Amino acid sequence: MSYKEEIYFLNNRHSVIINDYLTKVQNLMDSSTFFNEDYVGYEVLVLNVIDYHNGLSKYVSEGLVNRRDWFVSLPNNLYWATKGYLANLQLNQNEDVYYCEEKLLSLTLDVLDELNESILIHPFTEKEYKINLN
Fold it and tell me: d(Cα 67, Cα 98) in Å, to the nearest integer?
């Protein structure tokens, strides 16, 4: 999925981790949707999650949102939005949604672990006073 919209990241490591997660979730949803319209609908949902994530960055720079919360906001929000989307597909399709939900949970837990480890590897990343939106 190529995003026409820029995604805000804290640093390059954050970018690599999040883009890898988005690709894996995209592939999972592409294989789980039966109709092309369903996948197109999911792309719109992802763009809304990205908009929300980018909007939060403004509040981080103003000190109103914790930087660490924002750092993991995109995978957290995408997980819950995708769970809701899958609940709708379950009603309309005869797919193995349970497997998809389990795989989504696994991908999300892995990316959250990786993000938390990246903060430990670069301990001063969280304490930067300015966000590097590259």
Answer: 33
Q: 110-126 pLDDT, tens per residue?
A: 999 999 888 766 555 54
How many Cβ atoms are within 10 Å of 6's Cβ, its own excluded? 10
Q: What are phi and psi of 43, to 5 degrees?
A: -60, -40
* CA geometry: angle 19, 5, 117, nearest 5 deg: 25
What are the domain boundaries of the chain?
12-121
Q: Please, what's the largest Cα pairwise distance for the chain? A: 49
- DSSP assignment letter at 72: T
Instruction: Give the pLDDT of residue 30.
Output: 84
At position 122, the amino acid (one-letter code) is H
Beta strand ranges found along 2-123 (DSSP E): none
By residue count, the chain amounts to 134
Q: Mind listing the pLDDT tens digit for each residue in 16-26? A: 999 999 999 99
Give the C-alpha separation, 97 to 1, whole Å. Answer: 21
The verdict on pTM exceeding 0.85 is no
